[in-house]
Amino acid sequence: MRLPGDTPDADARLAQRRLRTALFKALGKLPDREREAIVLRVLEGRSTAETAEALGVSRRAVGDLVQRGLYRMRRMRGVGHALEAWLENMS
Q1: Whole-number average pLDDT of the chain
Q2: What is the band of 48 on the pLDDT scale with cuts at 50, 70, 90?
Q3: Cα–Cα distance list, 43 to 2, 14, 89 (Å)
Q4: Which of 9-13, 15-19, 52-56, 73-77 has the highest mean pLDDT?
Q5: Which of 54, 19, 20 lies closest to 37 in space, CA to CA?
Q6: Is 78 helix (H, G, I), strand (E, B) or coil?
């Protein structure tokens, strides 16, 4: 049901806000190293080498941490769809 003054843009902004909130809550539930790897590699767009150096781990470990963290997020209730939409927009 739309209220007077509601617009598709307002609906889209609300949906984006909810998406962002769900994703940041999910990130907060991850183990520290997985969260750090996702923030550096995915959110900040750092290279694998830069992320590895910042975390003090190997490049392979960066990939493992990111993949494990994304897997955990996909399995969290109400986050899987939001995560896929977010990752699609990041590409």
Answers
A1: 86
A2: very high
A3: 34, 21, 12
A4: 52-56
A5: 54
A6: coil
Indicate if the pLDDT at residue 31 is higher than 90. yes
Residue whose tokens read 């494990």: 68
The CA distance from 18 to 23, in Å, is 9
Q: What is the pTM of this model?
A: 0.76
> Please, are residues 86 and 44 in contact by the beta-carbon 8 Å criterion?
no
Read off the tokens for 13. 């902004």
d(CA 38, CA 65): 8
Class of residue 23 by CB neighbours under 10 A (exposed 0-12, middle 13-18, buried 19+): buried
Q: At what angle do helices 8-29 and 80-90 cross, to 10 degrees?
A: 110
Number of Cβ within a 10 Å radius of residue 50: 14
